[in-house]
Amino acid sequence: MSAGTPRLSRTTLAASRPRGVQLPAVDPADLRVGLVHLGLGAFHRAHQAVYTEDAAAAAGETRWGILGVTQRSARVVDQLAPQDGLYGVLTKGTDQTSLRLVGSLRDVAFPGTDTPRVVATIAAPGTHVVTLTVTEKGYRRAADGGPDLQDPDLAADLAALAGELRGAHPDSPARSPLGLLLRGLALRRRRDAGPLTVVCCDNLADNGAVLAALVAATLDAVPGGDRLRDWVEASVRFPGTMVDRIVPATTEAHRAEARALLGLDDAGLVVGEPFSQWVVEDRFAGPRPAWERAGATLTEEVAPFERAKLRVLNASHSTLAYLGALRGHVTIAQAVADPDLVAAARALIDDDVLPTLVAPDGLDLAGYRDDVLARFANPNTGHTTVQVAMDGSVKLPQRLLGTVRDRLDAGAVPTAAAGAVAAWIAYVRATTQGELEVDGWRVPLDDPMAPALAAAAEGPLGSLADRMLDVRAVFGDDVAGSAPFRTAVRAAVAELVTVRA
Ligand code: CS2
């Protein structure tokens, strides 16, 4: 924040009328809440909230204001509430920067203090859609894909849910997104407030079906959950989606750039590349924003798009992140400019990923690959290798191991994908041994499984690949049990750790 510069809000914006900035297409004060979003991070603000604003403006509708719910801290509420929900999206292209302000966020909430209000809003008749971006780890899934009942936050939430199911209205703060959603659904059912659509916008393969199954399995594990499960089955839809926009963490330099354009301080600023895509399965239980009028694709079949995006973009992103960080590259743009690393990313896509894909209608996969690599090369987003590298234990199974499984099933040895797995293993080893420095900073392992991974990474280098592949929660029995894959990963790890030694 800059002393002396007023803070963005409806009042300061009306008084300053900045030029060269795209003003909000809707005024948050005119909106009613029709959509609850769980996981109010930068990605939502740079993606679905923008589509929702453009859709509301195009259709002239005021019923799609968003109640944005943060996950773990009240920080985002402190950033956005004093700004009346207004914030900017700074778009950083290869040779152009622009700033637009977004007005679709009607209200913000923090589960630590606002759980009853969020639960009541999910249960309100005017709410028709719940969207989620809580990251892969936010779902608290166990290795088998069901709810991780050992997770203390989820366990506490399920106890509160059992109370809600008995009609006790517990007001304890929800500690997990799933807990919050289920309490909202329980109240919605009790109030008979009508059907609801829950849209998972995270990078999980088959995200809609996965969330539907997780909700059902969780309700099976809660005393008295069966009636709610039946209601969910009849009244709640979980369409699948493919979301895409590169959204790096906002830095002080971004804030200063936005301040210069806007003349106001924006604590809620987010940053994105120019590209944005949203493919949504058109299977809603009730009304929805006219997202297609904002450039989203509403379609019968999302899976081919989702699969192509996860396997081409996200998998090569992770590969570049691990290999790049190991070489000291700070940004993804630097990593993809390194000839060895772009060759590894291309080999992954060409040799192993593309043979597993069926091109979605109208998509040329080789062209898609080239576009993705060109987006990574944008030097102005400043997206860091370390940011993309986080949470590998929950990202790899979604973006890389499906490719490995399909290749093994086809009788092929996915050597390039084994190289990508090896890059992650080398990264885990280097970070947990305190050996990785990027940008003059010793990088720790940022991963929900960090203790278990550190334990597996400890020990002789010669058996490092085997110890890591034996982490079944990541690799499953099938991938871990494939002898040819193990051989390929061993060879790739040996090459990476020797080169580094
Ligand atoms: C990235 C994604 O951090 C990561 O894991 O691969 O966030 C990626 O930038 C988005 O999925 C792009 O749509």
From TrEMBL:
Residues in Mannitol dehydrogenase N-terminal domain copies: 35-292
Catalytic activity: D-mannitol 1-phosphate + NAD(+) = beta-D-fructose 6-phosphate + NADH + H(+)
EC number of the protein: 1.1.1.17
The protein's name: Mannitol-1-phosphate 5-dehydrogenase
UniProt keywords, alphabetically: NAD, Oxidoreductase
Gene3D superfamilies to which the protein is assigned, alphabetical: N-(1-d-carboxylethyl)-l-norvaline Dehydrogenase, domain 2 (1.10.1040.10), NAD(P)-binding Rossmann-like Domain (3.40.50.720)
Family statement: Belongs to the mannitol dehydrogenase family.
